[in-house]
Every structure is written in C-alpha cells, then in structure tokens.
Amino acid sequence: MLIKALTKQYQKCFNIFRDTISNYDEKLWMNENDYKTPVWQIAYHAIFCANMYCSAKESGIVKWSKERENYHRFDKMREMRSMNAKNIMPYTKNEILDFMELVNSNVPNYLLQMEPEAKCWPHWYDETQIEFHMNNLRHIQHHIGEIIERHDILKSFQYKWE
User: Fold this and answer.
1) pLDDT tens across 3-58, in order?
2) How many other C-beta atoms can be found within 10 angstroms of the C-beta atom of residue 90?
3) 31: CB partners within 8 A, 6+ apart
4) What are the structural domain ranges in the chain?
C-alpha cells in the first residue's frame, strides 16, 4: 500500500513538472541574466536530486548518461558563470524531460528497495527513508513552484490532478 501510494505521488509530481517544463518559454528557459540561477538549472537540480534521493542507498543510484559534474550545484554553477566559463552547456527542455522520464521509470524499483523505518542513506539528513521520500516530494514541488513563479504559464494549460 505504501509503495503504491508513494509511486502515485511521484507520478503526479512528475506530471506537473513535465507540464511546467513543456509549457515554459524557451527564451526564459535559457535566461541567465535576470536571476542568480537560470530555470534550466533549477529543473535539472530538482530532477538530479529526485533521482539521487529516491534510491534506497547511494550505490543504487541509476546515473543519467548526460550527467555533467556539478550542474546540480547552484553554488558551483554560479562560480563558473562569474568566471565567464565558456564551457557551460545548458540542458535543453527535451534533455530535462528525458532525464525526468528516466527517473520516473526508476521510482518503482527504488521504492521496492526502501525500508521505511530505516535511516536514509544521505548522512546529512536525520530522517527515516519514508520521511526522506516526503522531503524529496516537497523539494521537487518547491522547485516546480519556483519555476512557475518566474513565468505566467498557469493560464496556458490545465494541470491534471488525477
């Protein structure tokens, strides 16, 4: 029951995230001038962390083939941008959507390995694995809200809450 409920919640969360990204203006997606962190990086950060935090153990994380070192870290990317690094290659919306699909497809397997009352593997959190999944869902939703707030896309589509 618990795994089925969590799987449904992740699917709903990723559906909202997919709609948000799909409807996001391409010019605003790549904009690195108006905010400390561009939208493409916020989206990547949320999916990267979702993938990492869904796994029951660090050794079980399924890596994405297009993963680039430190792109999930806001501080590291700001440093690179402040040094006018020419090698920053932003992720496109389609790349992020592909990554999201990979993570979404891995969630059921990740959850089957979960021990709800056991301590979660990231040493920097003092939570059980079930608490950590709640934290993970909240984290994803936080960044969805942040992305939506930057662009008036709510009028352009209807969320499907089922």
Assistant:
1) 999 999 999 999 999 999 998 988 888 777 777 788 989 999 999 999 999 988 88
2) 16
3) 38, 39
4) 2-156
Q: Look at phi and psi of residue 149 and say left if phi exceeds 0, alpha if psi is from -120 to 50, else beta.
A: alpha
Mean pLDDT of the chain: 85
Residue 10's closest CA among 158, 135, 147, 154? 135
Tokens (6 digits) for 130: 């079930």
pLDDT digits (tens, 9 = 90+) for 66-89: 987 766 766 666 666 666 666 778
User: Is 6 within 8 Å of 111 (Cβ atoms)?
Assistant: yes
Is CATH 1.20.120.450 the right assignment for the domain spanning 2-156? yes
Tell me how far apart the alpha carbons of residues 2 and 43 are, in angstroms, rounded to a whole number.
27
